[in-house]
């Protein structure tokens, strides 16, 4: 017979749930600004900007110092380790800058994906060693939520049972450690959009993966009200010849969530998965207007889909910073509306309509 030993006190549970609710308050989502140093090189190279610490600081600053219009759109910001300890031009530490605006500070805590031996190129995510100590330090330094990304892919042989179970357990272990340290875990089992599979196959795999994740979270006594889920939207593979409508994507996504995600989970913050900025907003809006009961907040945790136009406008130039910040605000406002099912697309003939797909995307 299983016996329950309380994992968290009522006070700990209350704090975790309140943090999660603040992040996904109505119309609010997450700015994922946690790109690693290597990922920033991939963002900077196309616009001709050198990948130095100072340039990364300047770029993050133009996002974090956007005017009060973003305060009603962004509930939380995910930092990379380096960024958490950087400061704005006036010497204010970025984490304090974000907290002072009433936004929640988050931190990426995984150490990247590593090969899972004996599989067809599948992976697991490392970083559990020393995680509790790191979380304790991050909590002291102002972080109240964390992110850990696991990656699965759809092909003839994948995802394997082994990869599904291993990644589910790693996510559950990470979530449990975060909660012990007063940090809300974002659980991110990303199914990559690579491949030519159809919508039905992605929905089936998404359901299997999410069911395994929530079984593991239950086994590890994770307090669901103090968690957020960061899944992929259910979409066909990038090479699938058939193009599905936004409504079909929304219906498949919400159905998969309804079949697997307990109503206790506070919010679902979708990753953009290489969709264009406009596509990510339109699909999020369709998900929120989908005519099925949805017991969770359904919002965004976007990196590229909030930043692509801003990067293109910036190009590393001091004179372009204001224009770049405006582009970021524009996308934040669009996604805030989409999270409420109120977004109306004005067409996507500009940079916002360009695909952000990268094969085998890594952070």
From TrEMBL:
Q: At the top level of its lineage, which domain of life is listed? A: Eukaryota
Tell me what reaction this enzyme catalyses: beta-D-fructose 1,6-bisphosphate = D-glyceraldehyde 3-phosphate + dihydroxyacetone phosphate
Among the Pfam families in the record, one is Glycolytic
Q: Which GO terms describe its molecular function?
A: fructose-bisphosphate aldolase activity
Q: In which pathway does it act?
A: Carbohydrate degradation; glycolysis; D-glyceraldehyde 3-phosphate and glycerone phosphate from D-glucose: step 4/4
Q: What is its EC number?
A: 4.1.2.13
The UniProt keyword set, sorted, is: Glycolysis, Lyase, Schiff base
One example of a Gene Ontology biological process annotation? glycolytic process
Lineage, broadest ranks: Eukaryota, Metazoa, Chordata, Craniata, Vertebrata
Record's family? Answer: Belongs to the class I fructose-bisphosphate aldolase family.
Q: Which Gene3D superfamilies match?
A: Aldolase class I
**Protein name (database record):** Fructose-bisphosphate aldolase
Q: What is the source species?
A: Gadus morhua (Atlantic cod)
Which EC class heads this enzyme's classification? lyase
- Which InterPro entries does the UniProt record give? Aldolase_I_AS, Aldolase_TIM, FBA_I
